[in-house]
Amino acid sequence: MEAAWYWLAISNIVFNAVLCFIALTLNGVTIYALRKTPSVPKPLKALLLSLAVSDLGVGILGHPLFITRLALESRLQADLRTSFPTFYRVYIFVTSQFAYASFFGVLSLSLDRFLAIHLHLRYQELVTYQRVVTAVISVWVLSGLIPLIWLQIPIQIAYVFFAIIVVSCFVVSGVLNSMIYATVRRHAHQIHALEVQPTVQENAPNVTNASRLRKSAFMTIHVYVLFLVCYLPNFCALGFISLYPSLAAKAFQKYTNTLLMLNSSLNPIIYCWKLRDVRQTVMNMLLNAFSSHN
């Protein structure tokens, strides 16, 4: 039985090594593409860059630390909290910081698109680039402070504190994205009505702006759904382990950690899929890269 768990750990290590390379490559390209795409509004670009930096950090630090944890546990069969306390604290701090940055990043992105859809012309007045940058900096500072507090309090209280933050982010983001979806669907019908009117040339700028807003809104919804799919199993596994600890449950929880970090490799695909201008920038980068090698 121990041999089976050992090979499961090895397969998990290999999978994380592959994901590490993918996360580094895709998020590095995405960050460059976002910076080189002027058509993306600055507030939205700042929020997407923050998420992409968080995902890049998972590739730089998250995956390597998790691989090291899996290797130590499979090799030594020891509890890292007691055998390697310094490494364990570094691992918890780094992975938790990127997780919290993702929680608050998805929440901020959902709130931004909600305001963009519902405030209309007042959005540019209220949601300025400087305010969004301040919010992004605050998110990263908060994401660093929470794990520090988490490490100083009893583990039971820390889990409760963690669960409250997670559930709050999930619920609030879910409500915002549900309202975004309902509004976008209504706007889609309005756009269709404008397109069939005889004065389509006069309505063209409004239709174009509404279409871009709709695409960015759907991108936000997809980011949230993917976030939910990748993160929720891990929290369910943690809750199950706290009630019914077993070797099988702990092994399953390790794979949900991998699913959680898989989110960092999939987010860039959504950005390129839903934002045509970003996708075009990436295609131009690839074409230039191939033409320079030929």
Description:
The chain has 294 residues and is mainly α. Helix content is 90%, strand content 0%. The chain contains ten helices and no strands. Helix 2 (42-76) packs antiparallel against helix 4 (85-119) and helix 7 (155-195) packs antiparallel against helix 8 (200-243). The longest helix has 44 residues, at 200-243. 28% of the residues are buried. The model has no long low-confidence stretch (mean pLDDT 86).
Strand content: under 5%
Count of DSSP H/I helices: 10
Number of strands: 0
Uncertain stretches of 5 or more adjacent residues: none
Largest sheet: none
Average pLDDT figure: 86
Morphology call: globular
Helix/strand class: mainly alpha
Helix content: over 70%
Radius of gyration: 21 Å
Distance between the termini: 53 Å
The helix/strand series, from N terminus to C terminus, equals: HHHHHHHHHH
Q: Short description, anyone?
A:
This protein is mainly α.
Secondary-structure blueprint:
Elements: H1 2-35, H2 42-76, H3 80-83, H4 85-119, H5 122-126, H6 129-150, H7 155-195, H8 200-243, H9 247-274, H10 276-293
Helix pairs in contact: 1-2, 1-9, 1-10, 2-4, 2-6, 2-9, 4-6, 4-7, 4-8, 7-8, 8-9, 9-10
Write out key terms for the chains shown:
294 residues; mainly alpha; 10 helices; globular
